User: Fold these one by one.
Assistant:
Number 1:
Amino acid sequence: MIDQGYALLSPALVVSALLFCIGVAGVLLRRNAIIMFMCIELMLNAVNLSFVALAQQLGHEGQVFVFFVMAVAAAEAAVGLAIIIAVYRHKQTVNLDKINLLSG
Amino acid sequence: MEQVIFWLFSAIAIASALLCVTRRNPVASALWLVLTMFSLAGIFVILDAHFIAAMQILVYAGAIMVLFLFVIMLLNIGQSEASDLPGWMGHVIMLAIGAVLAVQLWAMTRIVPDGDIRLPAGAMRQLNEQEGAVQVIGGPLFRDFLVPFEITSVLLLAAVVGAVVLAKRRL
């Protein structure tokens, strides 16, 4: 019973690493801008899981950091989706292979 | 018992994350991501972060994912194009990620924080019971992290202005 709190640190970090790698794979393999964006949210969530797992043993400041990560994620989602809408209006697609606004 | 629930939620989270990445339809993808976030909230409760779990459901599953679904349906994106999942380059990328993941997992399973900086077992749960789940976050947030908290408000203001400027057709 006493050791239960410690027993979950490594499993939680393993799950976090798996989720982060799934997110990285999604960003690298998919070409749909919105799905890539969701994969970024997935990576942020994986990092939050690491923070919470370590906060259980090293003090609750880790949980405060998760709070800030959530605030930044919300701001990022709002701006990013606005950019996607603006690009879609120009190009009528969200496939990043067909969006090359900067290559002249 | 806690271990069983933890692994159950982890299995759901990882499976639905994989489904989220592999679905062709963005709406299905978004809904699988919502399931991932719900199961992560369950894991947060097991790890004694009750307030964070509530925020996870409210902010991520409630606000951010609804915003995503809103944009997907606004743009009316159906099935995505065929070039979504590349061929040999995809395999190379998958191999590289797999190698990084293997090293990460090997390192993660042997992490033990130093004895002198780590809290006694069950300290977080005790703190939650004594102060309440909100005060555990709120106390340090307004005592030690007041400046970052105030800067966050500037960030949110910039995000609001930026979103309006970018998405509006004509100002």
Note: Chain B touches chain A through 87 residues (CB under 8 Å).
Number 2:
Amino acid sequence: MTSTPMELRPVASVADLPTTTFGHRSIAWWGTIGFIIIEGTTLFICAMSYLYLRVTVGQWAPAYAPLPDLGVPAVQVALMVASNVPMVLVDRAARRLDLTAVRSGMVIMSLLVVVMCVLRGFELAALNVRWDENAYATAAWAILVSHGTLLLVEALETLAQTALMFNRRLEQRDISAIADGALYWYFMTSVWVPLAAIAFLTPYVAGP
Amino acid sequence: MQTIQFPGAHSALDPAGPQATAIKAWLWDPMYAAAVVTFVLVVAALLWAAFRRRPSGEPSTDLRHERGLTRAVGAATVVTVLVIFAVLILDGVVGHASTGAPANALRVTVTGHQWWWEVVYPGHSADEVATTANEIHVPVGRPVVIELRSTDVIHSLWVPSLGPKRDLIPGRTNTLRLQADRAGVYRGQCAEFCGAQHAKMAFTVVAEPPARFAEWLSNQRASPAPPADSLSQRGQQVFLNGSCPLCHAVAGTRAGGNIGPDLSHFASRSTIAAGTRPNTLGNLSGWIVDPQSMKPGTKMPPNELSPADLHALTTYLESLR
Amino acid sequence: MSSTIPAPAPPQDGRAATTVAEVVPQLEETWRHEPGLLGWIRSVDHKRIGTRYFITAFVFFLLAGLEAAVMRAQLARPENTLLGPDAYNQFFTMHGVTMMFMFAVPVMDASKLYLVPLMIGARNVAFPRLNAYGYWVLLIGGLFLYTAFFLNTGPDAGWFNYVPLASSQFSPTRRVDVWAQAITFTEISSLVAAVEIIVTVFKCRAPGMTLDKMPLLVWAMLVQSFMVLFAMPWVATASQFIAMDRLVHTHFFDVALGGDAILWQHLFWFFGHPEVYIIFVPALGFVSSIVSTFTRRQIFGYPAMVLSLIATAVLGFGLWVHHMFATGLPQLGESFFTAASLTIAIPSGVQIFCWIATIWSGRPRITVPMLWVLGFVVTFIIGGFTGVMIASVPFDQQVHDTYFIVAHFHYVLIGGAVFPLFGAMYYWFPKVTGRMLSESLGRWHFWLFFIGVNLTFFPMHQLGFEGMPRRVYTYLPETGWGPLNQLASLGAATIFVSVLLFLINVARSLRAGSPATRDPWGAATLEWAAASPPRPYNFAFIPVVKDLGPLWTFPGQLPAVTGIRTDVRDVLLTTLIGARPDSRHRHPKPTIWPFMAGIATGIFFITLVFTPWGFVIGVPLLTAAFIGWAWPRGQDHREQMSVEAESALGVSPEVPA
């Protein structure tokens, strides 16, 4: 049982509006921004907790734990920064609806993200401490593991989207998702630069 | 046992020291008055707005009215800002009264445990240190700086009649400055949820004239006199041969446990079980036999004792003045 | 010859329709609710989901209220034996957790998810499947929490779960782990709802509804949603930190190995303070809606009202240390938080003055919703005054963690959120259910509740001054706290009766309440243009607005746009600033995948309570669920082959098979 709705008088038509859009015109893009804010805040919290414990309690490397190695972390940072180049190319290809370029580009991104995940494992080893040894170890692992979760999500999303690009029943709007994935990629890689600096370089900075 | 007032005064609105007095006189009283006045004004305005007589029909959106309303809202906002500012100033004034550590302050260290208070008066040497529990004596009119620590979880020391509270946080040392300007007995209670018996973690602050306080302190510093009569002596044997020394200490004996309160001058304290009951023979007997009935969850286990042993033990403990 | 060959018929997708009668039959078919239990589970309709959220949240309100009733019964007499310390500690923790996490935020989520799309002229929220998922996650979390409680494993370290008490050393049972993961469910659900509202408000507003023509309720929900986005991650991360300290021996809060107990308080309260404004700000939206309708004018001072909402939200993030004034932090730092905590009273004051100005200059009708608004002002400001008082560090250091604080926060939360919420229920019940609630029962409900709340909580101010701390399962008779506690418990019984009256009112009205018209109150905003209750597609055509009060400006007939498809779930997206029609977007049909993803999430976090292997089990399950969810079904042939309109992108539309 329901009452009668109000009368409506048409004054214009939106029939000719497009149905596939990119960037801020697309709501999936805004959804991606929303999740970037949430996950960015989480990473910020891990970084702040690390610095808080360093400054407030101060039982830190090198006095209370070995210094981390810097080799593998440097490779990861370089790889992440560099990976934005192919990502931008794939992003542009998606906006042009150039499926061939998108397909090959996404295969490359899939390989890159798998390598990054493997490197993350080696970065954890490069910390030279186990997470349960002391608060410094915990805080360092927290940064790597929380960003590692982003990495894992990005990996699963990239692989799934790559597979999707080879789907026969692909719709145009699905290609818009590639651009959203690219946005996430830019975030994930750039946020790693300050996080890696905090996690790997702080023990090398002398302080109170 | 002491026959002092149980449970002691405990009202922030009846302050007995400069900190609590400043808070009541310079913060509570003026803010309460301002709140009452504001409440009456706002509610009156609201009711007048809702029920005043006005011509019927569509509401007027006359620009003059809107401008008048703008001025009224603006004025009310300005008044609000001024009141807020006044509170900020009052806060600054009082804030300075509760801090600092004057040179003539008495220093006491209180360590929080689940669910009792360890109280230590430092001395110049090891045998000048006085250790007691759940009762803090202070001289009237002299500032007291309490150093606050915790061995387990966060507790909070609060004596409403005397002043603000401060948390006892594991891994940190906090300090709290208090002062009693009136002799009397003041009740305090733990004010940070600390587990099963948070509700029964009280303590007593006894403010006495400086001479009486000095007498009390020197007594606390000395070892208790050995038991004089045979019943007490038997009681001491029951104490030392039982499980008591595992947790409790009595100066001058081989009992040196530090898990529970120091019992050297147990009889000089007015309450048992951290302010849960007055310190009487009957209450003590009940506590020793079955602490769980008085404080379920407390760490002290029940003790099965024959009535004769129990009587001797409690007599001994009540001899430890 | 060619004239005998008929031209191809235009596509039957509704885009060429010019009257409501042409589109309604196909809209009813395209947007219809699937029948049965399976259809109910698969629904992606924001109104059904919002209703679910609301009922679930209200059930939790009743459960938390019962917990409070038992607590008040225990405290009515000194040394009472109704609840021992172990049970009481679970009860007060559950009361706080349920009220704050399972009721207060979800009920606001419910309200915004139901009302916002209707108020902005949209058909649904931006991500219908995500919305469904958010609800299942909340439900599973709540069921998990209460199952644990009934099995004597309910959290018992307080709703803010301080360490070291909550560490595995001092809380060795699973109770704290239950806390840590149960609230994760509510965090996910509120983050989901926040993203929904932000994107919906940004992109799905009716043509012409620029930001300065959005109803104040929509502003309130938008501002609150941003607060959720920035605040929730703090408690989510903190609870995972404590879970890890307990499960895999990390040392965030372990003092012995370089951790810090106060870190917990910073992390928790950085969330915890905005949390109370997350609960309060939507209620301000309710009040504006009700006052406007029942004074027959727009709220006075719209720009000031919007700025006050934003100021409250921003300032709300700068206050958290006022919960830590007794921990011994440096004085200079504390002064900043005193100033900020005092300042936030100003925007609240501005709003109250604007509402009073509105009522003064309008034509007030004191219906039941308006009664609740009056009660809100009177009750909330009492809490506001004590809030100003406890902004001062020395004063707070007297009353912190005592019943004075219990009085304060119940006055602001009940006064500031529950009163407006009851008002909102009486106001929108006709829209949601198609029936009117009883006005006379409503008045009884209001007066009993108002009296009960004041009887319960006013004496607690005095109890705090007299030394009664929070979270005590009993107290000694010699303290003299008995009589005031008894009075408070009598007040609690009064509240109980009043809520019972409300439930009776709802039950009777659902069955036999007078039928509601589309707009029983004569309101101005778009939700009152839809039917009562609204059709699944909300509006046959998307309305066009030109000011804050479309139904007052265009009585009887609203201007609208046509051209949206009716053969698929087509919706209109508009631009952020100018609210100009920008694109069309296809919404999903009902689907089981959000439910499956909710189950996977449940398995993930519940297993984590017991073992870190939850990660290994949960991640593949979640991945499978989200792939099932997002994998396109290629349902829309026309999109696959589409040639028209994509030319607007200036690219080749061909997508090789």
Note: The first helix of chain A runs from residue 27 to 56.
